[in-house]
Amino acid sequence: MKLSTQKRLAASVMKCGQSRVWMDPEFEDEISLAITRDDIRRLVDEGAIQKKPIRGVSRGRARYQLSQKRKGQRTGPGRKKGKSTSKLSNKERWMMKIRPMRKELRKLRDAGKITPRVYRELYLKAKGNAFRNTAHLRTYISERRLSK
Fold first, then answer.
1. Which is nearest to 126 in space by CA: 140, 110, 113?
2. What would the pLDDT profile of 113-144 be if each residue is shown by its tens digit?
3. Residue 13, C-beta contacts closer than 8 angstroms, at least 6 positions apart
4. Which three-class secondary structure state does DSSP give residue 19?
5. Is 75 contained in some domain?
6. 62-117 pLDDT, tens per residue?
7. Is 73 inside a domain boundary?
8. Residues in CB range of 10: below 8 A, 6 or more apart
9. Helix and strand totals (H; E) in the chain
10. What is the total count of domains within the chain?
11. CA 49 to CA 51: how far, in whole Å?
12. Residue 21 forms beta bridges with which residues?
């Protein structure tokens, strides 16, 4: 049975959208005879036509995402936008480069493989960005025969 007119009138009477209008299948014959707004109002009062509750947007996913962020997840380099320095700052990149080199130099000095004087010279070179990484530093030492 086509009840589109009744649905439209009911939506107008109840001040909601047509998708929120629910019509009781048991009262179908009665509803089909309702052609005026007064008829629709009467059916609404009887409960043959009802207004469905508003369906909102679920916050479940948002809450889960927030809990993950509070744990420190979802914050990797893939989440970051912008240039390379926004993903890993220049300072952090430098620290990741210089710390292993300084550790290597300390290890060589403490083991007695290089003199304190050579250590100081290489330390300052490393500070001046003369070496790419620890491997480069080791090849520099061996090529120049700076180790004892």
1. 140
2. 999 999 999 999 999 999 999 999 999 999 99
3. 37, 40, 41, 44
4. helix
5. no
6. 999 999 999 999 988 888 889 988 888 999 999 999 999 999 999 999 999 999 99
7. no
8. 21, 23, 40, 43, 44, 49
9. 8, 2
10. 2
11. 7
12. 51
In which domain, by residue range, is 105 found? 84-143
Is 60 part of a structural domain of the chain? no
CATH of the domain at 132: 1.10.1200.60
pTM over 0.85: no
Q: For 18, which DSSP code?
A: G
Q: In sequence order, what are the residues at sequence separation of 6 or more whose Cβ sits closer than 8 angstroms to the Cβ of residue 26?
A: 48
Cα–Cα distance, 144 to 139 (Å, whole number)? 8
In this structure, are 45 and 88 located in the same domain?
no
What are the angstrom distances between the C-alpha of 90 and each of 1, 83, 87, 94, 125? 71, 11, 10, 6, 19
Residue 104 covered by a domain:
yes
Cα–Cα dist 97/85, whole Å? 15
Instruction: Kindly state whether residues 93 and 137 are assigned to the same domain.
Output: yes
